[in-house]
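Hi Prof. W.,

I finally got the histidine kinase prediction working! I wasn't sure whether to trim anything, so I left the full sequence exactly as given:
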Amino acid sequence: MSVPPTSAPSPAAPAAEPVQRVMKVRRDYNAWVARETLEDYALRFTPRSFRRWSEMRVANTAFGAAAFLVLEAVGATLLVNYGFINTFWAIVAMSLIIFATGLPISVYAARHGVDMDLLTRGAGFGYIGSTITSLIYACFTFILFALEAAIMAYALELAFGLAPVWGYMVSALVVIPLVTHGITHISRLQTLSQPLWIVLLVLPYVFLLQQEPEALHGLFAYAGLDGQGGEFNMHLVGAAVTVGIALITQVGEQVDYLRFMPEQTRANRWRWWFAVLLGGPGWVLMGAVKMLGGALLAWLALSALVPAEKAVDPNQMYLIGFGYVFDDARVVLAVTAVFVVVSQLKINVTNAYAGSLAWSNFFARVTHSHPGRVVWMVFNTLIALMLMELDVFQALGQVLGLYSNVAVAWFAAVAADLVINKPLGWSPKGIEFKRAHLYDVNPVGVGAMLLASALSVAAFLGAFGPSVQPYATLISLGVAFAAAPLIAWATGGRYYLARADQAPAGGGLRRCVVCEREYESDDMAHCPAYQGQICSLCCALDARCHDLCKPQATLAAQWEGVARRWLPGVVQPWLHSGLGHFLALMSFIVPALALLLGLLYLHEAEALGRTHAELVPALQSSFIKAYALLLLVAGVAAWWLVLAHKSRKVAQEESNRQTHLLTREIDLHRRTDEQLQRARAQADQANRAKTRYITTISHEMRTPLNSILGYAQMLADDPAVPDNRRQALRVIRRSGEHLLSLIEGTLDIARIEGGKLKLESGALDFPQFVDDLVHMFELQARDKGLAFRYEQDGELPAAVRADEKRLRQILINIVGNAVKFTMRGEVVLRLRYAREMAVFEVRDSGPGIAAEDLARIFEPFARGVSGNAEASGTGLGLTIARMLTDLMGGEMQVDSTPGRGTTFRIRLFLPRVAEAPAARPRTMPRRVAAPPPVPVLVYPETAALHALDELIGLGYLRGILEKLDEIEAAQPACAEFVRRLRIQAREFQFDAMRSLVLAGHESRA
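And this is what came out:
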């Protein structure tokens, strides 16, 4: 059993469970949405920076929509059905109503840079409430598109004999390329076509009135096809207004252009107002004249014995009209076709453009996606093309008559909010259109429109009797205009704004946190879900925030509030059950299907009744059966939607529970991470202490080790040493060099691990560097009886950026190991350079590395069991080479087959350098036998150790001076060189002795 709904939490109340966080994922719009020349700021505020056209250019673009020939068709239809006198007063009444409602709508749209949908949101309908009006608006655009394109197709049939099915297609598809770039191309089309259209429009009336001035007298006396409209009849006037007032929606199409009007300033004040009047409600003045002109041409057609169904066709009207201008029938036909095509293109680019905006607004709120205005423009055109195949032109009166009731209610509610509610303070100043600040449904506009529509449609269908039926649209106008202020007063205007604007004060551009684009401040709102400023389009399309910024203003929360207030407690639990959702959904589907099939039935019954009236009952039975079948299918689909919604809701609740658990787990992980960070800090501190210890002890070890190596070298070169002791000296020297390599390697590893080793990148003469390396190892390999080959793929750059010392260290370790551990065969060094990536490949024919050793070959002191036991090494070379490669951002790989050899591959990024480094003298290749790093004497900081090192150095220096004496005696040519060395050695000896004396004083102190 369902439980009663709970109240929506207030914004300040703590949530019962943690709010699911919304991760910031950058939204990338496709090219059709991102390019504003295509998108024309659909779904959003029109920024001031985009309103670059002059006032008259925008007004001319909007006024060009008045070219549509449906106006003449409406005037002719009214004349045939109601007579001239009633048609005249109906046109006057329609024009006054449209002008009065269109003026405030046009002014607000031009002043605030919003289209009809955005204006409706802020004028009493709310964010979701305006979705209904967007659908109404979209229906008007494709209905009018179909009517206009049908007229153009008939003109193509008259001029070229093109079949209507192809004429419909041409008339619809030719509009698409003209509308893709929005107002940019439309304004050019209207500007270029306006002079031709005005000339062709005025020309037939001028000639007609000159040649037949008495035609007006016959028009004024015309009483309609049935002869009942010869006198003023309020019922007939009301019926005529009901048919024609549907054109009030044309104001919305004007508004879609007026949003590009530049801002009003003191300098352009009069121009601005004139442009708004001309491009806004001013179209109805031209429309009234065109409707009267259509009535005149239709009367001439009827006088020429043209059938009534043909006389209301604008093509037939202007064929008769241009017949007064030209005598040649072919010229008349050509000029008529040109005029009709120009007129219909001027209006249908507007219909397609307005339809694309309306469908964009509708589907953006229903689906939370927006493929682009261009997509919906094509969609709107295809719907109109389908309607043309249904021959909707024949049902013009019925379609527009029913539609006008809802359209008038919509515009009357909007106008009432603008001219009554806002001045009285019941509605906020300005136009708020952003989802983040609006209630989903505002009862002011939605309630007024629904109430007025219900009463007017009921009156139109005869529910209140035939005496009230002609005044259906007036009922709609009056009820909506009165209900909107009353509801605003009753509710205190609290359903306009869901929350205050939290954006920082000031204008300028701001960056959206979602799409990361910059927009003007009017188009931005603060989003608590994303913790930043978000643009209106990203806000409208977001489906993850669940209206976190306004939980009390959602449609669900509002519905629950209404249910708690007005429904009995026993009924409320059923509202949240599956049956309640199913009945609510079917309450919309049943009347919607009835309306669609009813309109189709009326259209077919009217067409069939003219020739086969006896078949109408069978047609009615067929439609009833079709309705029952569709209702069954719709019921199944509705139940499936209810179950799917319930399943999604259960999944969402489970997701929220899992999110709560995950949040707790994340919190625990955060605490664990804090503990790990503290442990890591302690480990880093210990590692730094280890590095300092290794550095210090290596310095202390090198002091006696340098003396051992130095004296071992001196003794090895001393001829007085017996031969049987020289082997011992060689062992001492090799052991000392091994120990020195071990110290240096350990120190390098400690520096790298401690992050103290810094790369010193600079320009490197790459070819010479490689050449030196190759010559170095050629000599070493030749001494071992190995073949050494160097292979190069491609041309090397003259210079690259690299740390020469560390790059040399890596290659010497790898190539040196290959030479060291290879007993026979060859060592190959291959270099490939491409796209600033150098790949060094070292391949040998040595013993290889066992598979179990490959995993630990780069570990310190690790040596494979298959290695050469006689080869010396510390086991740190590969470790250091691997660490340096990683430090340089490279990659080292190894492949080995025991018994066949090993291949090392080193990939390093060595970018080219524009200017080669200064040339340096070529160094001669040296014989290298597993060279250890050059020892560097680093003195301890304590005075005693410093003195000890100096004392050892003095003895070593004396040996060097004795060697210099022997060289001078044996080589007289080197006397000058030896003399200089002796002077420098004496100076060094003096400094060393002085340090020793100072150390003695310090020790005694």
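The two ends are 98 Å apart (CA to CA). Does that look reasonable to you?

Thanks,
D.
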